[in-house]
Amino acid sequence: MSLHSLDHTAEPASYSSTEPLDTNESTDERRATTRAGTVWHDARGAEDHPTLANLSVSGDMKEWHDRFLIRSDRHMPRSVFIACGEGVQSNWQMERLGCTLEDILPGELCDRFTDGCSESLATGSPVPIEGKYHDDESREVLFRCILMPVRAMNDKIDFIYGAYSHKVVH
């Protein structure tokens, strides 16, 4: 698994889906992607992928501030956000759930999300992405995200659980 960058200048990093993301055994882990990765890993138990029920989508909303759940579609840009924390909704100016990736995300970011979601669904593994894009006000935004496969109750992986964080460059 490699870390992807929009500008493709970053060195690849590795991530193994068999090991939990390193949280330094701290409950105060600040990185949203690491916290979400730990939740995903713990929800898997002995399975290859967690189910929606084990992921506790209706859990603590404070924990969902920077997280989202996407229902995949054969045409990935038309995949739908079905759960989203208020921080993510606010950042992407998402007025309601049910919006598609292509309707909400800026073009450069949408391309990265669709590629990352497709890779996660195909490999059955978490896919970290990071890079930069320009928002609607032409500001440069640095971002970090992790996209992780989730199944409903059967063995088919239909969902992507993830976390997103960003910083606007001034």
CATH architect. name: 2-Layer Sandwich
Strand content: 15-25%
CATH class descriptor name:
Alpha Beta
Number of helices: 5
CATH topology: the name is Beta-Lactamase
**End-to-end span in angstroms?**
32 Å
> Considering the protein shown, what is the CATH homologous superfamily?
PAS domain
Biggest β-sheet strands, sense, barrel: 5 strands, antiparallel
Strand arrangement in the largest pleated sheet: 2-1-5-4-3
User: Would you count the extended β strands for me?
Assistant: 5
| Overall 3D form | globular
Q: Helix fraction?
A: 25-40%
Mean pLDDT, to the nearest integer, reads 79
The string of secondary-structure elements, in order, is HHEEHHHEEE
Please give the domain count. Answer: 1
Radius of gyration (CA) equals 15 Å
Low-confidence stretches: 1-29
Q: What class do helices, strands and sheet pairing give?
A: alpha+beta
Model description:
The chain is 26% helix and 25% strand. The protein has 170 residues and is α+β, with helices and mostly antiparallel strands. It has a single domain, classed as Beta-Lactamase (2-Layer Sandwich). Strands 2-1-5-4-3 form a five-stranded antiparallel beta sheet, sandwiched between helices. Strand 4 and strand 5 form a beta hairpin. It starts with 31 loop residues before the first helix and ends with a strand.
Quick structural overview:
The chain has a single domain (32-168), classed as Beta-Lactamase. With 170 residues, the chain is an alpha+beta fold. The termini are far apart.
